């Protein structure tokens, strides 16, 4: 049977095996999907061993995405732009192809929630790996402006300069942000510690859409905060997780699974519904 897995550290909490098993069942693909948690300095060897032993493809998550970028034979254009790889496929001619499906997953999830990206003013919080992966797919949707704000401002400036050729992207420090924005995407890891990015409450209004890439069984700190200040449309990153997985599955198997039912199952599994 064709073998796939996700590499990460820690990875025991990963929902990827659950999601891909449902995708495989739905599309009647014969495959198995597992977990691998190599020591941080043993990822390269573990990856080689997996493919030497017949593995067909894998996902890569924290903290290995940047390292995976350096280990594959070929990069997709979107992985090259993202500077990180979250999906690897062994092609029929024996080449390890590195791809990045995170940004496509984010955009697909935003669209599935009915969020309009074209001509909208987007605020992206954070300038880490997730922000980098999101920039090209977001700019491809032709927003009127995309502003990046990050705790370490120089990183936001670097990203804005790097992606400037793809659209109207600028960097701004938190204290100087001027609204109104149509959409705020939180790609910081602040919610992981129950913290908030230093965003002025005045930027939140009833018609704004709020997206936190983090997810959990209950609202993230950022979503709670945004609701308290009047935001009516709030979304967490669970849909992005399922959509980026669907994109990876499509890269591997050449068949696109449906995501709605799988997202429902995942929510049930997490106790969200
Ligand atoms: P990184 O570590 O690469 O970047 C973290 C970013 O968060 C940096 O910009 C950092 O700022 C900022 N940050 C951290 N703490 C705070 C704080 N207290 N206040 C303000 N800013 C802060 O992480 P990733 O980009 O890889 O991941 C970010 C988030 O996105 C995580 O929560 C991750 O779980 C989520 N994610 C979700 C996915 C999904 O499918 N739903 C996929 C990928 C990521 P600074 O530069 O100043 O350190």
Topology:
Elements: E1 2-7, H1 16-27, E2 31-36, H2 43-52, E3 57-60, H3 65-71, E4 74-75, H4 77-82, E5 87-90, E6 96-99, H5 102-112, E7 121-125, H6 129-139, E8 145-149, H7 153-163, E9 169-171, E10 183-186, E11 209-212, H8 221-228, E12 233-236, H9 238-253, H10 260-270
Parallel strand pairs: 1-2, 1-3, 4-6, 7-8, 7-10, 8-9, 10-11, 11-12
Antiparallel strand pairs: 3-5, 5-6
The structure holds NADPH dihydro-nicotinamide-adenine-dinucleotide phosphate.
**What would you call the structural class?**
alpha/beta
Mean pLDDT: 96
- C-alpha geometry: globular
Strand content: 15-25%
Strand order of the largest sheet: 2-1-3-5-6-4
SS summary, helix count:
10
> What is the count of β-strands?
12
Q: What is the percent of helical residues?
A: 25-40%
Compute the CA-based radius of gyration. 18 Å
The main sheet comes to:
6 strands, mixed
Ions, cofactors and other bound molecules = NADPH dihydro-nicotinamide-adenine-dinucleotide phosphate
